[in-house]
Amino acid sequence: MARRGVFITLEGPEGSGKSSQARWLVQRLRRAGHRVTLVRDPGSTALGRSLRRALLHTSAELSPLAEALLFIGGRVQLVEERIRPALAKGRVVVCDRFHDSTVAYQGFGGQLDVPWLDRVGRAAIRRVMPDVTVLLDVPTAVGFARLRRSRDRMERKALAFHRRVRAGFLRLAKREPKRFVVIDASQPAAAVRREIEMIVSSEFGVRSSESRRALRIPHSPLRTP
Ligand code: TMP
After folding, report:
1. Separation of 121 CA from ligand 1 center, angstroms?
2. Contact present, 134 and 196 (Cβ < 8 Å)
3. How far is 212 from 111, CA to CA, in rounded Å?
4. Residue of the nearest CA to atom 12 in ligand 1?
5. What pTM was estimated for this model as a whole?
6. Per residue in 56-73, pLDDT tens?
């Protein structure tokens, strides 16, 4: 199946506000006339929802490698069942977390072999990688202050783990500057929305070259419908 749509992922450490921004981005794109599919990883398939419960809402200790492979397995199902068909129909797919989360959390956070995990993760999803990844970066302490009291298994991990996750995301962004756009998510939500708005307008039509420079987008991987 040929791929015609545009694939956007949102990534970030805990408390980055990524899920609300993903919902807002979808509304914004739909208002602009795009056909948009919103999914989240893990989730958005029956397997993904079961894995989400098994991985996040449990008190069991899990081996980081088992955890990584389960996240990857859930993602394979998500790509095959939801993402690839939507892209083939020319839709814009917005995905809340994706492959980079496995590399940042299980690789950098869980101290697995990062290049190996990156290779295995990409091979499993047959290289269906995002055109653009918006990284909502937030210092660990600021993100944690925003979390609700009842925390899931990941949120209960030590601050040192989450600091490695944040640093890992920033390393990934530096390594692939053409794919990543980094936004300072310690700003108020409205300011973050304005920056995402600039990406939407610069990548999907009406745009100013200033906004591209401000956001350090070196080229446009996206196409207008
Ligand atoms: P969220 O979707 O509400 O952000 O929660 C997902 C949690 O799972 C979050 O703590 C990050 C974590 N996670 C991983 O550790 N590895 C992964 O590959 C993915 C997709 C998520």
Report:
1. 15
2. yes
3. 35
4. 154
5. 0.91
6. 998 888 999 999 999 999
